[in-house]
Amino acid sequence: MSITRFSDQENLLDGTVIMYDPVPKEGVYATILGRNGQVFVIAFDFKDLATLHKAAESAFDGDLRATAEDRSRVTERGLEYLKTILPESPEGEA
After folding, report:
1. Sign of CA dihedral 88, 89, 91, 92
2. What is the distance of C-alpha 18 from the center of its chain?
3. What region, left, alpha or beta, does residue 43 occupy, with left being phi > 0 and alpha being psi -120 to 50 degrees?
4. Which of 12, 18, 62, 65 lies deepest, with the highest CB count within 10 Å?
5. Verdict on whether the full-model pTM lies above 0.85
């Protein structure tokens, strides 16, 4: 993998796929490299795979004139998750 971990991104894993197992009509289990010899199994359903495919196509096109913030996307499920971990803002604040 040529994408490297930035020093301030301790939660970034290598992500190199070392094995995968397609599950008919469900999605794919992918085994990836983590760090320090760890491996992780990730389950992707078809919605996840479509999201990643769209992102990969965009990256492959090479049109990266937009800033990293403009290229990054939080999925609907990601927004739901963020609501569970972020503190609620006091009333009247956005």
Report:
1. negative
2. 17
3. beta
4. 12
5. no
